[in-house]
Amino acid sequence: MEILENASLREFNTFGIDAKAAKLSSFFSAADLKEILQNKELRKMERLILGGGSNVLLTKDFEGLVLKNEVPGIELIQEDDEFYYVRSGAGENWHKFVLKCIENDWAGLENLSLIPGNVGASPMQNIGAYGVEVKDRFHELEAFNLKTLETEIFDAEACQFGYRESVFKRQLKDKYIILSVTYRLFKTPQLNTSYGAIQGELNSLGIHKPTIKDVSDAVIRIRSSKLPDPKVIGNAGSFFKNPVVGNNIYQDIAKKHPEMPHYPAPMGQHKLAAGWLIEQSGWKGFVRGTHGVHAKQALVLVNHGGATGNEIYSLSEEILQDVKSKFGVELEREVNII
Ligand code: FAD
Ligand code: EPU
Hints:
With about 350 residues, the protein is an alpha+beta fold. It has helices at about 30-35, 40-45, 95-105, 155-160, 200-205, 210-225, 245-255, 275-280, 310-325, and strands at about 5-10, 20-25, 45-50, 55, 60-70, 75-80, 85-90, 130, 130-135, 140-145, 150-155, 175-185, 235-240, 245, 260-265, 270, 285-290, 290-295, 300-305, 335. The chain folds into 3 domains: about 5-70, Uridine Diphospho-n-acetylenolpyruvylglucosamine Reductase, domain 2 (2-Layer Sandwich), CATH 3.30.43; about 75-225, Uridine Diphospho-n-acetylenolpyruvylglucosamine Reductase, domain 3 (2-Layer Sandwich); about 235-335, UDP-N-acetylenolpyruvoylglucosamine reductase, C-terminal domain (Uridine Diphospho-n-acetylenolpyruvylglucosamine Reductase, domain 1), CATH 3.90.78.10.
């Protein structure tokens, strides 16, 4: 395997941060990983697994080994009366995978169109958008155990999915590398057009009997209208999670701001819109030289060019403290800080 030294990670993270990795190697299979990790020196090093780098903020040079996931292949492996079971290598681009499913009439991922990154990271943090989360379509995944160097299968229960959460971000953090993910997709589409602006977008195009391709196109148009394209402006999507708060905190804020967006959450709690809280705190469109807050979506921090990861992290800390002092709500970062 080729091991690069002192390699720039700029092309490998969508924030476009110019950090370096002491060592960097791509891998295409479990056999490649075994070969790399049987090397005593490499095995000892701290590791960072990278897919598309669209959910990381690099705050310093990485003194260890970056393993870039390139495991390929998309395959229909099984079907029954209701479902197709489609396996994708973890290194496949997520949006290309979604488009391939749509082309083949494998339904269910259309609401998750245009999310950057690779298939391997999709269950890591249970990606979601427009009323659908990966956990709703997930069948199983194959992961490489970094201790035993063997592969294991995880079903949905073992993954312990939650809102932008899985066991791989908590108890099993840094212990496994996801090699492939199998999705269970509908033979008869179950369209979900009730979320946000999807129905309005379809109406405006005069589409009354949408196909999964129509829903995907509508999602792509809505996303493109407010989220920055990382090829143009560096970013990692939502920087914070939408906070879930108890009824007392919700009532306190809602008394002053009855217009505040909110969604029901388990156990009588409420999910608030972090983007709204940040906008109300005055940060939307904020610019500090090289970096700032996106003008069309306050939940997205941006690198206008030349920002360091630490500058962006500091801005996130200021926003977090400000929202806390104004609303009594503590935001949690969604992006992985490295
Ligand atoms: P990376 O950034 O490479 O990695 C993310 C984390 O997972 C890291 O901790 C990494 O070490 C780990 N990891 C990656 N691959 C593996 C693997 N194979 N095995 C083990 N660990 C691994 N997310 C949403 O949920 N919904 C959205 O609507 C959404 N919109 C976005 C819009 C934009 C413009 C951007 C830039 C990002 C958006 N995101 C969204 C966030 C991001 O796209 C997802 O989190 C995506 O799944 C990250 O994939 P990645 O391959 O880039 O992961
Ligand atoms: N809002 C504002 N101001 C803003 C941004 C949002 O007032 O600057 C309000 C909106 O008007 C709306 C509410 O907040 O009432 C929610 O906004 P939006 O529909 O844009 O979604 P979001 O909650 O900000 C979440 C996900 C996105 C996902 C969209 C669509 C999280 C942290 N973010 O954003 O995921 O694409 O819903 O489903 O859950 C990501 O994870 O990186 C990501 C982009």
